[in-house]
Structures are given as C-alpha cells and as structure tokens.
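Kindly draft a sequence, keeping tokens residue-aligned:
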Amino acid sequence: HRDVRVLDGGLAAWTGDLTTEIPHPAEGDFRPKPGALPTLDAESAAAFARSGLLLDARAAERYRGDVEPIDRVGGHIPGAVSAPTTENVEADGRYLPAERLAARFAGLGAESSTEGVGVYCGSGVSGAHEVLALEIAGFTGVLYPGSWSEWSSDPSRPVATGPEPQ
C-alpha cells in the first residue's frame, strides 16, 4: 500500500489525552498484495553479503557472537556488516533526520550497492525497522525475513564471529 503511516518514536512518543468518543471509520477498499516488499532467502542473503551489502540490524554483542539469547549459536552471516537499529534513532526513539541516516548508511557502504541493501536481524522484526530507515535515507532495503534464527538453525551454514564482516 502506498499510503502508509508510522508512529515515529513508537506509542510512547504519541501518547496524549484519550477520548471516550467512539470512532466511526469509513469502510475502505484496500486489498493486500502479498509479495510487494522485496525479500531475500538464505541463499540470496549470502550472495548479498559476498557481492553487495548485507546489514545485521541486531545489537553489536549479538553480531560479534558475545551473547545469543535466542538462537543455538551466536555470530553473524559471513560478510554482513553490523548496523544496529539503535543507531537509527534519537534518544527519544524517533528516527534520525533523513540526511543523518543517509550519511550513516553511506558510511556502511550503501552508496555502492546497486541491487538494494540486504537486511536481517534475529527474526525479521528489527530488520523491518532498518528497511524503513533505509527508505527514509533514500536507499532500497531488501529484508531477509528468516534472519539469524533461520540462518543459524542450519548447521551447514557458515557463521562468523567478532567485530568484522569476515
């Protein structure tokens, strides 16, 4: 859908006086079109890491493999670049201005990416936040919805640890 709204800063940034008035919204005619968001599978995520740009939106500790509170193994997809979503927002939780996001992602290599920027996280949730930040910055994000949970569940897939993409 092209007419999308986001609560920048989450619910905490948008709280205010509540009304007891019951709303009566008009009936809409929206019809979802599955597949409109470009996505990656494990193989294409690995390809992005090798020949494009694949961002890991999780906390740096999880990227490095220092801690892994959810999945069987810690670390990151080899070649992925650490880009925690916490660096996309101000202290109040609202997104950074577009020009600051653009500079952040350009510094990570987004300007040289011709096929969009691949993004993953733990399970696809924080990755969606990163995809929106890329969009605000003027880049195209491509989500790997299976993310680290899917990647790390297959013992045949390589795992990198430490602060560098490897």
